[in-house]
Structures are given as structure tokens and as C-alpha cells.
Amino acid sequence: MKIEHLGIAVKNLEVSIPLFEQLLSTPCYKTESVASENVSTAFFMAGESKIELLEATSENSAIAKFIGKKGEGIHHIAFEVENIEAEMRRLSALGFEVLNTVPKDGADNKLVCFLHPKTTNGVLIELCQEKPKA
Ligand code: ZN
Fold it and tell me: Of the candidates 15, 12, 112, 114, which has an alpha carbon nearest to the alpha carbon of residue 67?
């Protein structure tokens, strides 16, 4: 599995997008809202991986809760898999707590699911698979 992206929780994309553009010396190539997660996202290429900035769009968002507890910072690591359903079954059988029963639509044309940090040494893990082109 390669690291597809790192998710970073930020308070304000308007502030953080130019900051990461300077840091990485590359433009933000996509911004996208994910209504089901109550987040706005912004993506940057960083070598073969990406950086995903996440800003909460509602107080109920997991990102708002995360920032409330821990402040801004690294929120999750996303690994790219070829067959997300097979990986979910494999990891579930090994005792990892898979937070979704079926993959859900994520940002950047991906199917995603998450593993609970309590079974992964405190790190929220995202599995993602590129959606087949329609
Ligand atoms: Zn992500």
C-alpha cells in the first residue's frame, strides 16, 4: 500500500491554502466539498503522494471535533488499495475496527473507509480506492 495522502485538519482553508502552496511550491490543484462529511477539502501534490487539507463546514463535523480536542494538525493517513472491499474484509478479520460497513464516496474521486484509531496505535487510517471511470 502506498501513502496516497496525508489529511491535515485546518481551521481556515483561505489561510492554509496559500501557506501550503508556499511550503510545497506547488498550486492547490483541487478544492472540493464533501457534504456527507461536512468538510471542505483542498489537495496538493507532494511527490507521489498528496496533502489533503480539511476544514469543517459544520460544528458536527469530525474535523471540528478533532480541532476542538487536539487543535490543527495531522488528522489521518490514507493508503491506496486496489480492492477496498477485500481490504476491509481482510483487516476486519484481523481485528481492526473498520468504521464503515460499505465503502463511501470520498473526495478526489475515491471510495474510502476508515479504521478506528483505537486499533491502530492512535492513528486514524483511511483506505482509498480510485473510483472506476463511469
Ligand atoms: Zn483523506
Answer: 12
For 32-88, the DSSP string reads: EEEGGGTEEEEEEEETTEEEEEEEESSTTSHHHHHHHHH-SEEEEEEEE-S-HHHHH
- What pTM, to 2 d.p., does this model score? 0.93
DSSP 121: T
Give 128 Cα–ligand 1 centroid separation in angstroms.
8
Q: Are 58 and 52 contacting, i.e. CB atoms less than 8 angstroms apart?
A: no
Distance 107 CA to ligand 1 centre (A): 7
Q: How far is the CA of 77 from the centre of ligand 1 (A)?
A: 7
- How far is ligand 1, taken at its centre, from the CA of residue 95, in Å? 22
Q: Kind and range of the H or E element at 92?
A: helix 84-93
List, for residues 104-130, the tens digit of each pLDDT value: 988 888 999 999 999 999 999 999 999
The rounded Å distance from CA 89 to ligand 1 centre is: 20
Instruction: Measure 26 CA to ligand 1 centroid, in angstroms.
Output: 19
